[in-house]
């Protein structure tokens, strides 16, 4: 693309941005991009349907009506024909018609709306990042808030009429007439049968009175105490005003606004003060005189809008550089950079920051001050907040309150209301226990402990008898931060449990209860399962305290009891009581066998699942129950798949390998897999019950495929392909039919994978290689040679050569 084309492309992009600005009204960034664009040069017809739809979407998003957008476009200088074209394009798009326009810059070149909007977003982000920590900056640069001027807002009585404004005069009553009059260049409106009335420069209120007075000369019904004709004067289409925003502003320039616009409207469009601009002194100048000074903080902090004056044509908004900027950090509700006026104090800044946070230490703040050469630090106490005047560059930091209590004690353990309590003067231990609503029944009465911090900040322990404190025999005066611990009798001994495992519904650990019977525990565990052996329920018991006093070979005691499935026992056995830490075993009945299922698929008479009827049932047995093979069965290709459940060690190793290898998925690692077991169904059917006739296991899958007439050749051949099987055709001929060996083929390792899952490899002999026999349905696999790093090989040989040369050199020197 040549320089001319690039220049034209740039100009066209600016035109497009301008039209998007006015019809989307996106705010600051577009205004910046559109400052030097002549709106009259924008060709609406060349905008694409996508751009028009973007405009409609943005208008809806911003809550702008078409009339408001048109008002803004007219005020910016767009012609009526351009506005008409834009309305037509919007209506056509809404009705479903498409213009098929692209945003043509040069023949064959397009600039997308997405590119334009992405540039706008980047600029917005840049501006926002620069001033994001300045208080008030987000107010003028947030898409959540808009100060876009409203074109439908009624004007105030103080509005000054000017050339181009429209007045609507409605005569009603005995006489009826409507006048739509525009203020002419001479400053007057012309009323039929009355003539010109000078209104330019008058406030709307005074102009109303003047017009009504003149109308009485042609409408006599307006006069007298009891008029029968009335007049209403209202504003129609108002002229646009030009306002200059200059100084330290994000987007300085001249803005064309509706006549109802205020100072905040102009500031919003210009993006507000930049990172160097003042938010406390924004001057509004009219005819060279200052009419108002805006303090944005007055609105942000107190919601005051008195300084937000209504603008007039050729007003100037001057944003001056800030004077004093102060950094606020730490435990304040608002942090960032704040602006301070002359003589404002730390107390004022605390109000702007929203006050202290809930965790702040409020008795003092830290003040860091720049003395042009060095920094100074000052502690400012709360009583000095109002008298400490702030300077430019000051930093104020509020710290956290420390986690230390002056009047707290705590009680924990076996009381009804454990927790923290207020330390009152003269508080005694008995009083604190009473506040906690007393000790629980299971409280350990012999001892309690008070943990107390001494003057040197170390801790000491004070013990007491809870029984004596509750009986009034003794008491202890408490101190702040004392921690009282009262244990229960259960805290003072090991948790007593009992366990049942094996063939019950809910095996597990249960709380021990005194005089618990064996039948009771089985009942609590949900009773026996069907496979339970109930004739010999075993109880294992640890050695008692006396038995463990001496070292013996005895490890535990064992008891066995028959228990009826209805949990009935003999009187003697039923009287047996369990003790804590007993372990009850309910074993599986020796004759119980879980139901085993095998799956038979493919070319059999009755494919499906079959339950194994006896231990050691063979392939031929299940195949006979399945009705045998069909005439279409390819018996030679029958295969068997068997479940393999990995051990914990195998599973953990495979899982660790998958985590290390980025090419493997951890979720694909399964504990249960299937392995192919090579079988020869031809031999099995020929010799039922023989060595080849394997015993089946639960989960086995027997598959008998249909006749297969192809041979697949894969691996290091020139054209891997599936070929038609032919009797007596050798393996080498099949490889030649697939293009022959590739250069990387390892010919000595060619092997054949048969349909039944078995494989046979190439064997070497003195007469050459003996390739496996090819059968229908098999796959000939030609492996590749391992890749060799030639650089490493060359380095290896170079090293060997150097070593040999060095050796011969040493020998020759030794001989000399």
Automatic annotation (TrEMBL):
* Xref: Gene3D superfamilies: Outer membrane lipoprotein wza domain like
Question: A single Gene Ontology molecular function, please?
Answer: polysaccharide transmembrane transporter activity
Query: What are the residue boundaries of the Soluble ligand binding domain, all occurrences included?
Result: 243-291, 325-372, 408-455, 498-542, 711-752
Q: Looking at the Swiss-Prot or TrEMBL record, what is one Pfam family this protein matches? A: SLBB
Keywords for this protein: Signal, Sugar transport, Transport
Q: Where is the Polysaccharide export protein N-terminal domain?
A: 156-219
Annotated protein name in UniProt: Sugar transporter
The scientific name of the source species is Ancylomarina euxinus
| Upper taxonomic lineage | Bacteria, Pseudomonadati, Bacteroidota, Bacteroidia, Marinilabiliales
């Amino acid at each position: 693309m040549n320089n001319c084309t690039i220049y034209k492309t740039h100009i066209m992009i600016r035109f497009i941005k301008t039209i998007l600005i006015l019809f989307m009204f996106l705010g600051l960034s577009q205004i910046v991009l559109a400052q030097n664009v002549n709106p009259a040069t924008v060709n609406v017809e060349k905008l694409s349907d996508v751009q028009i739809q973007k405009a409609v979407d943005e208008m809806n998003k911003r809550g702008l009506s078409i009339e408001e957008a048109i008002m803004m476009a007219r005020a910016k200088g767009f012609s009526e024909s351009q506005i008409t074209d834009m309305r037509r394009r919007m209506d056509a798009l809404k009705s479903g018609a498409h213009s098929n326009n692209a945003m043509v810059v040069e023949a064959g070149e397009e600039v997308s709306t997405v590119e334009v909007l992405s540039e706008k977003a980047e600029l917005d982000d840049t501006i926002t990042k620069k001033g994001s920590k300045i208080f008030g900056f987000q107010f003028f640069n947030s898409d959540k808030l808009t100060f876009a001027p409203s074109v439908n807002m009624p004007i105030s009585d103080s509005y000054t009429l000017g050339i181009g404004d429209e007045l609507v005069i409605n005569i009603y009553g005995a006489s009826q007439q409507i006048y739509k009059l525009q203020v002419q260049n001479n400053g007057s409106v012309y009323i039929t049968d009355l003539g010109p009335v000078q209104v330019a420069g008058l406030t709307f209120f005074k102009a109303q009175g003047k017009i009504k007075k003149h109308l009485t000369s042609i409408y006599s019904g307006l006069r007298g105490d009891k008029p029968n004709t009335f007049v209403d004067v209202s504003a129609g289409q108002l002229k646009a005003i030009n306002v200059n925003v200059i100084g330290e502003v994000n987007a300085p320039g001249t803005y064309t606004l509706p006549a109802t616009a205020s100072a905040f409207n102009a500031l919003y469009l210009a993006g507000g003060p930049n990172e160097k601009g003042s938010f406390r002194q924004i001057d509004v100048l009219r005819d060279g005189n200052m009419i108002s000074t805006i303090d944005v903080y007055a609105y942000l902090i107190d919601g005051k809008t008195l300084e937000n004056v209504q603008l007039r044509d050729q007003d100037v908004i001057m944003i001056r550089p800030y004077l004093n900027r102060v950094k606020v950090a730490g435990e304040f509700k608002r942090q960032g950079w704040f602006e301070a006026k002359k003589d404002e104090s730390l107390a004022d800044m605390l109000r702007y920051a929203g006050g202290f946070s809930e965790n702040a230490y409020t008795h003092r703040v830290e003040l860091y001050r720049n003395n042009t050469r060095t920094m100074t630090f000052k502690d400012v106490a709360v009583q000095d907040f109002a008298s400490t005047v702030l300077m430019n560059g000051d930093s104020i930091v509020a710290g956290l309150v420390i986690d230390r209590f002056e009047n707290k004690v705590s009680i924990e353990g076996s009381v009804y209301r454990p927790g923290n309590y207020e330390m009152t003067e003269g508080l005694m231990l008995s009083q604190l226990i009473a506040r906690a609503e007393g000790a629980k029944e299971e409280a350990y009465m012999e001892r309690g402990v008070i943990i107390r911090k001494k003057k040197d900040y170390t801790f000491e322990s004070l013990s007491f008898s809870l029984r004596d404190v509750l009986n009034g025999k003794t008491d202890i005066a408490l101190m702040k931060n004392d921690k009282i611990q009262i244990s229960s009798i259960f805290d003072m001994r090991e948790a007593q449990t009992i366990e049942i495992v094996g063939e019950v519904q809910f095996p597990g650990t249960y709380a021990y209860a005194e005089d618990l019977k064996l039948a009771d525990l089985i009942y609590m565990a949900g009773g026996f399962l069907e496979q339970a052996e109930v004739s010999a329920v075993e109880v294992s018991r640890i050695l008692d305290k006396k038995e463990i006093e001496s070292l013996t070979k005895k490890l535990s005691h064992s008891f066995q009891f028959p228990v009826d499935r209805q949990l009935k026992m003999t009187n003697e056995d039923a009287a047996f009581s369990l003790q804590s830490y007993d372990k009850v075993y309910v074993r599986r009945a020796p004759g119980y066998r879980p139901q085993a299922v095998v799956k038979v698929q493919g070319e059999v008479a009755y494919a499906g699942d079959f339950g194994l009827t006896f231990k050691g049932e063979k392939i031929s047995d299940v195949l006979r129950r399945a009705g045998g093979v069909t005439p279409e069965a390819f018996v030679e290709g029958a295969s068997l798949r068997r479940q393999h459940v990995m051990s914990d060690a195998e599973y953990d190793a495979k899982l660790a390998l998958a985590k290390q290898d980025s090419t493997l998925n951890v979720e694909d690692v399964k504990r249960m897999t299937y392995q192919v077991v090579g079988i020869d169904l031809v031999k099995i059917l020929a010799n039922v019950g023989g060595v080849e006739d394997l015993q089946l296991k639960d989960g086995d899958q027997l598959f008998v495929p249909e006749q297969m007439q192809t041979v697949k050749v894969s691996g290091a051949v020139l054209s891997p392909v599936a070929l038609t099987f032919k009797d007596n055709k050798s393996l080498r001929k099949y490889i030649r039919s697939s293009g022959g060996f590739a250069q990387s083929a390892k010919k000595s390792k060619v092997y054949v994978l048969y349909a039944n899952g078995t494989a046979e490899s190439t064997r070497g002999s003195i007469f050459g290689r003996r390739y496996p026999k090819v059968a229908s349905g098999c796959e000939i696999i030609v492996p590749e040679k391992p890749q060799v790093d030639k650089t490493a090989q060359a380095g290896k040989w170079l090293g060997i050569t150097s070593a040999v040369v060095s050796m011969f050199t040493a020998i020759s020197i030794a001989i000399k």
